[in-house]
Write a structure and sequence with these properties.
- The protein has one helix spanning 2-32, and strands at 35-39, 46-47, 57-61.
- The protein has 62 residues and is an alpha+beta fold.
- It has one domain.
- The protein has a 3-stranded antiparallel β-sheet, covered by helices on one side.
- The radius of gyration is 17 Å and the shape is rod-shaped.
- It starts with a helix and ends with a strand.
- Keywords: Signal.
């Protein structure tokens, strides 16, 4: 019974770490395309089709 509990806890921990890695890679993809994550109130920048970590930011080409 304890072994089953430990396996479930391990599975939860692994899913948390992999989902965190996906969030960090979003801002990396923006930088890779030559942009930066800026707030929605930026003017004069072209918005790239890559997501940023925050929903209030866009990937903006500088």
């Amino acid at each position: 019974m304890r072994l089953l509990f430990l396996l479930v806890v391990l599975l939860i921990c692994l899913t948390q770490t992999t989902s965190g890695h996906k969030r960090n890679s979003k801002s990396f993809q923006c930088k890779k395309m030559g942009g930066a994550c800026k707030s929605q109130k930026t003017h004069g920048c072209s918005i790239l089709p890559v997501e940023c970590r925050s929903r209030f930011k866009h990937c903006c080409r500088l």
